[in-house]
Amino acid sequence: MTNSLLGALAMVMRTDPGLVRGQNEDSVFVDADRGLAILADGMGGYQAGEVASNMATTLLSSGLQRAFKTCAAHTIDQGSGQLFAQRALVEQIAAVNSAIYRAAEDQSRFGGMGTTLVAAVFCDDRMVVAHIGDSRLYRLRGDEFVALTRDHSLLQEQLDCGQISAEEARYSVNRNLVTRAVGVDPQVEAEVHTHVVHPGDVYLLCSDGLYDLLETAEIQHLLEMFGANLDLAAMQLIQLANDNGGDDNISVVVVKVLREFPAPPGRWSKLLSLFR
């Protein structure tokens, strides 16, 4: 576990192939120094999903780091770091989508590959989250545990229009059919939102290999029980998913807000100041 963004955040990541799959097509990335967390769940033929998810986390993390560094080096008064983070996420995810799509077009063995994606940028007492597909981001604040992302999936659409109930959804054959993914089409739209963060908040990024096998209440209970030890929290989440069958890859990123991290005086973003 690492504490950074000037001691304001603690982050831990963990990924596991599960008990059934022969390979791990999930990929995770954290940069606690700069408040970045990314998780991707790949899909496609043999090794193609692994390639897509690895491309997503590698290209997005490096692209965001370059964007923030360029802005910090050339802009005297950027203003709101969160607005820049929103724009950078949209632009860099579009570039990642194009790169994965081109790789699939150029190499037949990667044909049809793609990946879900959820990425969080912490800056100026806020979190900017972008997601595509059905990987999720949850927030534990006090005794309230909520999903801050809404799946881009056929199942979610059926739930939204009342075709099926939440109980029926748990056993639906459409559980893993996403309606939006990175790299499948020439263009994709990331859904982006900004949330105010509070000291004590715990954020969980996870693939469907976790939440498909654990009840929401179970996830909340583990985060509450082990919130003081994020490494142990991540291990216990994955262990319980494996205990419940482990029929998919399981990945988690757990982030805890330790204290406030407002923008410094002069309207410089805390995030951008770290890249100067």
Features:
276 residues, alpha+beta, Phosphatase 2c, domain 1, 6-stranded antiparallel sheet, 5-stranded antiparallel sheet, 8 helices, 11 strands, globular, hydrolase, Serine/threonine phosphatase stp, protein serine/threonine phosphatase activity, EC 3.1.3.16
What does this 3D model show about the protein?
The protein contains 8 helices and 11 strands. The chain has one domain (2-262): PPM-type phosphatase domain (Phosphatase 2c, domain 1). 35% of the residues lie in helices and 26% in strands. The longest helix has 27 residues, at 48-74. It is globular and about 55 Å long. The chain has helices at 48-74, 81-106, 154-160, 166-169, 208-211, 216-225, 230-243, 270-273, and strands spanning 2-4, 9-16, 26-31, 36-43, 114-123, 126-132, 136-141, 144-147, 191-196, 202-206, 250-257. With 276 residues, it is α+β, with helices and mostly antiparallel strands. A 6-stranded antiparallel β-sheet has the order 1-2-11-10-7-8. Strands 3-4-5-6-9 form a 5-stranded antiparallel β-sheet, covered by helices on one side.
Q: Strand content of the residues, in percent?
A: 25-35%
Structural class, from secondary structure content?
alpha+beta
Biggest β-sheet description: 6 strands, antiparallel
Order of helices and strands: EEEEHHEEEEHHEEHHHEH
Compute the number of strand runs.
11
Biggest β-sheet: strands ordered side by side in the sheet: 1-2-11-10-7-8
CATH superfamily: PPM-type phosphatase domain
User: What's the architecture, going by CATH?
Assistant: 4-Layer Sandwich
Low-confidence stretches: none
List the domain count as a whole number. Answer: 1
CATH topology: Phosphatase 2c, domain 1
Radius of gyration equals 18 Å
Distance between the termini: 25 Å
